[in-house]
Amino acid sequence: FTVDDKGQMLYKRKPIEKISLDNEEIFSDKTELLLNNIPVHILNTLQAIENQSSNKMLKGLDGQNKVFLNLGLTKDTKLKTAFGDGELGLGNRGRYNAAPVIFSLHGKLKMGFIGNYNSIGNGIDWRQANEIKSAVEKLASSFLMNDYPLSLINNFENKWYIKNQQWDNRFQINRALGEHLKSKTEITYLKDKQVQKTTYNSSLYTNNEFINRIDSNANIYKPQIFGIKQTFSIKT
Question: Cβ(44)–Cβ(72) under 8 Å?
Fold first, then answer.
């Protein structure tokens, strides 16, 4: 293992794409967070797994050759620990940003919470909505009328022209129900209030002359998503 100048862990010069705890994925893509905050004394083994893929059915076959890292924890059933990270910022014009992250390990029970509360214009958009929805939900929503009334500007940060009040809460619980049965519960709740005022200038030709027209709009977009996903896995 090596660490590059950006703090990213590498194995045989390949970046670690995911980190699991005892073969269980709890926000496994948050590699930097896990590497910087997990207590050393609870670790028993480090296992680098090569030739992996984002699609479990295609690992070693699709040429991605990703490297995942599994952190083997001590086998003490009385193990109790919690760790995390956080960020807090305040600014003018009512701007704020808070991002708490907490992981808890209690014997066979593993929990994780990632939150983000901000008014800096990040906001909830169709990308976050698709991230939470399952394949079936995405297919069903494709037949519905989706409306994103806010005007976006390419290559220009949203925070300069959109004011929002975003609450993003993601909670995951992994529990071993037996020697071969495991349970994973994922709870997600997102909501936002995005306010935007726009002004459009247009020039119209009336066969005789050009006249200027100004259209002003005030949009309030309030997306809200709540999801619960329960998964049971049986090891045979």
Answer: yes
The stretch 26-47 carries a mean pLDDT of 79
Looking at this protein, which amino acid is placed at residue 15?
Answer: P
What DSSP element (H or E) covers 31? helix 31-37
Instruction: List the one residue out of 190, 196, 132 whose CA is nearest residue 164.
Output: 196
Query: What's the mean pLDDT in 194-199?
Result: 86
Cβ neighbors of 139 (< 8 A, separation 6 or more) are: none
113 contacts: CB under 8 Å, gap ≥ 6: 100, 101, 102, 103, 169, 170, 171, 172
List, in order, residues 6 or more apart from 133 with CB less than 8 Å away: 141, 227
In the block, which residue shows the tokens 């269980």? 24
d(C-alpha 65, C-alpha 53), whole Å:
6
How far apart, in whole angstroms, are the C-alpha atoms of residue 48 and residue 14?
Answer: 11
Token pair belonging to 140: 């069903």
pTM of the model: 0.69
pLDDT at 58: 53
168 within 8 A of 190, measured Cβ to Cβ: yes
Residue 120 CB neighbours (<10 A): 18
Q: What is the pLDDT confidence band of residue 178, given thresholds at 50, 70 and 90?
A: confident
